[in-house]
Amino acid sequence: MALIVQKFGGTSVANTERIFNVADIVTKTAQAGNQVVVVVSAQGDTTDDFIEKAAEITDNPPAREMDVLLSAGEQISMALLAMAINKLGFHATSLTGWQAGIKTDLNYGSSRIRTVRPERIQSLLDRNRIVIVAGFQGINSHDSITTLGRGGSDTTAVAIAAALHADLCQIYTDVDGVYTADPRVVPGAKKLDEITYDEMLELATLGAQVLHNRSVEMAKKYNIDLEVVSSLTRNPGTKVKEVTSVEKMIISGVACDKDVARIAVMGLPDEPGKAFRLFSLLAKNKINIDIILQSIGRNNTKDISFTVSRGQLDETVRLLEENKDKLHCDSITYESKIAKVSIVGAGMASNSGVAAKMFEALSNAQINIRMISTSEIKISVLIDEEDAQRAVRAVHDKFFD
Amino acid sequence: MALIVQKFGGTSVANTERIFNVADIVTKTAQAGNQVVVVVSAQGDTTDDFIEKAAEITDNPPAREMDVLLSAGEQISMALLAMAINKLGFHATSLTGWQAGIKTDLNYGSSRIRTVRPERIQSLLDRNRIVIVAGFQGINSHDSITTLGRGGSDTTAVAIAAALHADLCQIYTDVDGVYTADPRVVPGAKKLDEITYDEMLELATLGAQVLHNRSVEMAKKYNIDLEVVSSLTRNPGTKVKEVTSVEKMIISGVACDKDVARIAVMGLPDEPGKAFRLFSLLAKNKINIDIILQSIGRNNTKDISFTVSRGQLDETVRLLEENKDKLHCDSITYESKIAKVSIVGAGMASNSGVAAKMFEALSNAQINIRMISTSEIKISVLIDEEDAQRAVRAVHDKFFD
């Protein structure tokens, strides 16, 4: 008998038919002799409807009350799913975040789980119940309801799996696993049977959008076997674990991120502390920096380029212009029509020539590289946005054909 | 500075405009120097929508999960109201039933409040917060969510007022008080400035439907000043208290209940225990009896007549027919086209001739009385349904013109 945590997103419980599909998956897992804990998101458009209701009242709702409102969404879906499971002849009990012992920090809107007290879930499992837990929500030390922000239900599932020492945490989505590239862009993209936590983290950061980063980080920390699987096809999905057992591929995927803008600060004095002053200014204003590149300029100056998300471009440029004198730089330039293409793979570290192979593929496709950034298991290049799809296909074909 | 509990029903918070109307009432009360606790129901049709969602899944939802689902309704409305009050520049904090310390018994669907632990509400009031509490819901000793059944939000408001020793509990509805008769039937009906708990209880039982009985019972027990007031007109409403200060009117109202059916069990042996056997059979089957009348029949027999709600008529007749032999009765007759007209008034006890005055009014209107039942502060008569409106008007005119 195994203990399995299964997480279902909002589209998986969007209507009565889909709720019964989920109930079928859950009860079949239980019937096979497993203990099952289900983590469920709010139904389809519920969250958007709530946000709209709040927007009718105020542009600036108090974060605490927004969490009270949003958390009602999972309370609705978990009750309906419990009813469906009971209808199929199994005993299910639903628990809100606080009932399931999910304690968070004090932030509203994007709270982080501090601890999970799994006693109540465990005692229900011991009495042969299927336990349904509201994803995305918890309670803080003031006994006020909090929500976990984007991807929160994935994090709830992994945190519960960790607290219960579950054998497996399955994340059901509308895709049937993690692919070597976006299948909509690269027709030859292959589904991966397995991937390491680190590879999954790099891919999540790079915009693969299958699992939320925080959930993968937590799974890695507590060594929880994750599986990404489709609630519609029910085919075997992709397993995410510490070490993959299959023969290691050099790279596990090609990702593309178009939410990128590049800013260059030109002609900074080549003196100690200048870069620090620049990035501490940005950090203070909560601008998230991705790739950084420093090059030597003329006349004892240096140029620093970096990337930010497009939503933060205007604010960043405004900030820099306002502080131009303090920074002692000559000029500030920026461009937004660029994209970041990356390859990720744990096998990269022990295989030389991976970067060269990627650059060769881009060169053959006549694609100009604007910036390069590398880590232990990742190589990213910045290119023109219009070349993005061609670049992903060229790199993918080079490694996987 | 007074502490005031204000309760608003579902129609009062049905949309954004109405929510701001409520926020305006609440903040004006606070601005006048009062501490305010608001108890709020689910928005307009929310509860019906939830019941429909559940019905799509199963005819027989587990009561526990139904309460989880329904209680999300007040969580939505309380968050929206808190946002509106904050928008108006006041600090409001919303609390679910369990957060507000409302502990109930173990029943789902029609739970009763056991205790209210008001510490959290009190501490928020001490910090100058307007506190919004979800009506209709609480938590049982298993830490599971319960709902209080019909009229539950009124009961929540009174229970909180009792626990906080509030100075006043205002029940905002879409009528502007308690009338001497239904204004739709009797054009000359007058709004009462004051009414006693006992009178209100009799009127509620008799179908006036302004306040739920349980809330009035609780207000009487803890001596809470209640006020029924309209959230739309905002005129002074009707105060419900232990002793009314105005010169006592002989009667405070005329009520009519058409949800009545009469059953007669004829020819029971005139021996001890026969009536007990009849009514214990009905009690065992959860048939609620209202008026009972026993008369002497022929040949050492007696006839017992009583009334039930029309919804229970068929079941009651079936039960009696099945047990006819055990009851040793001759025959069972029934009729459903009847109505009960009642006058209620705490002044009745000290004023003789009230019953005679009522019967005179009915006699002058040529209305035949089928049964009579009296209590300390109430006189009810059973008449033909078709005479009901004429009877209410005739009696009302006799006492109030």
TrEMBL record, chains A, B:
Its EC number is 2.7.2.4. CDD domains: AAK_AKii-LysC-BS, ACT_AK-LysC-DapG-like_2, ACT_AKii-LysC-BS-like_1. This is Aspartokinase. The keyword ATP-binding applies. Residues 263-346 form the ACT domain. GO terms for molecular function: aspartate kinase activity; ATP binding. ATP binds at residues 7-10, 173-174, 179, 184. One of its GO terms (biological process) is homoserine biosynthetic process. Substrate binds at residues 47, 74. Keywords: Amino-acid biosynthesis, ATP-binding, Diaminopimelate biosynthesis, Kinase, Lysine biosynthesis, Nucleotide-binding, Transferase. It is an enzyme of class 2 (transferase). Catalyzes the phosphorylation of the beta-carboxyl group of aspartic acid with ATP to yield 4-phospho-L-aspartate, which is involved in the branched biosynthetic pathway leading to the biosynthesis of amino acids threonine, isoleucine and methionine. Belongs to the aspartokinase family. It holds the Pfam family ACT_9. It catalyses: L-aspartate + ATP = 4-phospho-L-aspartate + ADP. GO terms for cellular component: cytosol. It comes from Butyricicoccus porcorum. It comes from the Bacteria. The keyword Nucleotide-binding applies. Pathway: Amino-acid biosynthesis; L-threonine biosynthesis; L-threonine from L-aspartate: step 1/5; Amino-acid biosynthesis; L-lysine biosynthesis via DAP pathway; (S)-tetrahydrodipicolinate from L-aspartate: step 1/4; Amino-acid biosynthesis; L-methionine biosynthesis via de novo pathway; L-homoserine from L-aspartate: step 1/3.
